[in-house]
Design brief:
Elements: H1 3-13, E1 23-26, H2 30-39, E2 48-51, H3 54-62, E3 67-68, E4 76-81, E5 85-86, E6 92-93, H4 100-109, E7 110-118, E8 131-135, H5 140-149, E9 153-156, E10 168-172, H6 179-187, E11 192-195, E12 197-198, E13 205-210, E14 213-218
Parallel strand pairs: 1-2, 1-4, 2-3, 4-7, 7-13
Antiparallel strand pairs: 5-6, 6-12, 8-10, 8-11, 9-10, 13-14
Bound molecules: ribulose-5-phosphate (5RP).
Length: 219
């Protein structure tokens, strides 16, 4: 199976975790695009979706799925999203699609985070995928120096602003052995909007797409 077929496989499997009658939190990215397309088949059974990006909102609406923004709901039973990397504890790197801030906001509303990934995203130690960090532009040089002190090379993502109008730093060369500690530390730095480490908001469940089928891992 191709990587895209594995993404479609786990996206369809995620439908089992959508709670009938409720709002479902929806992430962003190519795996989630498959999920949105599959969700269209059960749109009559859900209240609608809480979206994490302009792109996902547009795709959901194109399918006729009712969309709410994060500030319009108080809680969600489940949030479904992809990841750039996931480790053995369900901690993730996210933000490859630049939606990390809104993704974290919607994930924070949800009782459960169901992560849908193909097997290439499963790693022992986070950091091979450059860590995305949404930042305030004035702080970029100082944040680059701070990451350099940790052994990382923080490069401005060319030509990209998030849905919130901020630039992204992609930090190369980190070995993130303690994701919770690093998330907590980077969150303190002035000028950081959101670090793309999801350790506080780690996955509750991962649906991993492999050549043998969907593996379900609970944390
Ligand atoms: C977007 C994300 C995505 O979940 C992550 O980049 C994975 O994307 P894809 O499903 O396209 O591989 O965090 O900000």
């Amino acid at each position: 199976m191709t990587q895209d077929e594995l993404k479609a496989l786990v996206a369809r499997a995620a439908l089992q975790h959508v709670v009938p009658g409720a709002w479902v939190g929806v992430g962003t990215g190519s795996t989630v695009n498959h999920f949105i397309d599959a969700l269209a088949g059960m749109k009559a059974q859900i209240a609608g979706a809480v979206s994490s990006s302009v792109a996902s909102t547009q795709r959901l609406r194109a399918h006729g799925i009712l969309v709410r923004e994060a500030h319009e709901v108080e809680s969600l039973p489940v949030y479904i999203d992809g990841a750039d990397e996931i480790d053995g504890q369900g901690c993730m790197i996210k933000g490859g699609g630049a939606a990390l801030t809104r993704e974290k906001i919607v994930a924070d509303l949800a009782a459960r985070f169901v992560c849908i990934v193909d097997a290439s995203k499963r790693v022992e130690v986070l950091g091979r995928f450059p860590l995305p960090v949404e930042v305030i532009d004035l702080a970029v040089p100082q944040l680059q120096r701070r990451f350099a002190a940790l052994g990382g090379r923080a490069l401005l993502r060319a030509g990209v602003l998030t849905d919130n109008g901020h630039p992204i730093l992609d930090v190369h060369g980190l070995q993130i052995t303690d994701p919770l500690a690093m998330e907590t530390e980077v969150n303190q730095w002035p000028g950081v909007v959101t670090v793309g480490l999801f350790a506080r908001h780690r996955a509750s469940l991962c649906l991993l797409g492999t050549a043998q089928g969907v593996q379900t891992v609970a944390y």
